[in-house]
Amino acid sequence: MKRLYGASLKTELYRGKPEMRDSKIAARAAIDFRDELFGRNWPDDTGIGQFAALPASEDVRDYAARARAAGILLGMWCAPRRAFVYPEFQFDPVGKLRPDVAELLAILPNDDDRGGWRRTFWLYSPHAYLDGQSPAEVFGSDPARVLDAARDEFAGDHDAHW
């Protein structure tokens, strides 16, 4: 019997099963993209607490949890840091939360997205409606275009294009 190791074993296992190979490739790409996003060193609860100028009596984690629950702040769970981190597109240059974030988050589907990953992946992936830029790249200068792209993709009548 032929012994297979490494890449040749994978080739043999996936031969004739392109859906398995494709799903493995997609999973690897998603993991790589997630790791790239982790590398951006986004602020955690403490970081946004500094921007928000909270009173000393208010707990930063409670504030962030309430803001996430209210749909005015997108948090992405970062397992290595054991904390939510907050993508920078949501904040203006001085660290204040942009007012249009709540409207955007109301449009983006959040079903089964407690960790914020689906929304974050959409926000940081190139979008045809935005000339290949990601919604996060465009949001700071033209939030209306991003809101239109989100509405078109998630809130519109999906049968209207037929």
From TrEMBL:
Source superkingdom: Bacteria
Protein name: Antitoxin Xre/MbcA/ParS-like toxin-binding domain-containing protein
Organism: Paraburkholderia xenovorans (strain LB400)
